[in-house]
Amino acid sequence: xxxxxxxxxxxxxxxxxxxxxxxxxxxxxxxxxxxxxxxxxxxxxxxxxxxxxxxxxxxxxxxxxxxxxxxxxxxxxxxxxxxxxxxxxxxxxxxxxxxxxxxxxxxxxxxxxxxxxxxxxxxxxxxxxxxxxxxxxxxxxxxxxxxxxxxxxxxxxxxxxxxxxxxxxxxxxxxxxxxxxxxxxxxxxxxxxxxxxxxxxxxxxxxxxxxxxxxxxxxxxxxxxxxxxxxxxxxxxxxxxxxxxxxxxxxxxxxxxxxxxxxxxxxxxxxxxxxxxxxxxxxxxxxxxx
Length: 290
Known about the structure:
Layout: H1 14-18, E1 20-21, E2 27-34, E3 39-46, E4 57-58, H2 67-73, H3 96-101, E5 128-132, H4 135-140, E6 146-148, E7 157-159, E8 177-178, H5 185-188, H6 190-199, E9 217-219, H7 224-236, E10 243-247, E11 257-259, H8 262-268, E12 274-278
Parallel strand pairs: 1-4, 5-6, 5-7, 7-8
Antiparallel strand pairs: 2-3, 9-12, 10-11, 10-12
């Protein structure tokens, strides 16, 4: 499960650690894990013709093609002032097409589903059948009014930890309740919430950072160069530079870091999508008014 994954950093042996960086590398390195023995190896192979006594080099930031992104990701090895080199250009307003490029899945609503929020009431004379992927719910919900099923299509209530995406199918079963609503990820996913708020407010310098109540936030997947520039500017101005680093969509403080080390934050961007908040953390709760 995603919430049980952990990041393991490792150091290569004496030879691998001595291989220097080059923008035109002669070799490529990649990790190979032998799951049968629980041993990790680094595989290397030549990218160009290599003669005897030629230096072996590799690209420390393989895959970072954008100029500003490469400059930023190389800072842990070649630290320098980038405030005048990196762009401060704000991101354009996000569209739904952007979600595909970030590895997200579309939610299926259907153009005809104008009344998706009006699904009526559950009419059931016997126990309500519940479909869930949460073991705690199965273990502790013992009321006689509820029974569990392994068939989502036959359930009266769908209560899942993962994202429910096909809301259009609820039209054919209006009696079914789901513990989510369309596009709720805009509120529950940290990067989307910050981006929506930033799109709604533009600072005097043209940078989309959101309303006053929103902590200064950056998406490390899309805004790493902008963040590095902001970090060094704040450092030069002796401003508080502690940041909370959190994954986009994880809970219980999994993979969360609090640091004022720019190099650490840049390396953390390699372990999965992250969002940054300056000095404070906000939490929104939806409470139904009885």
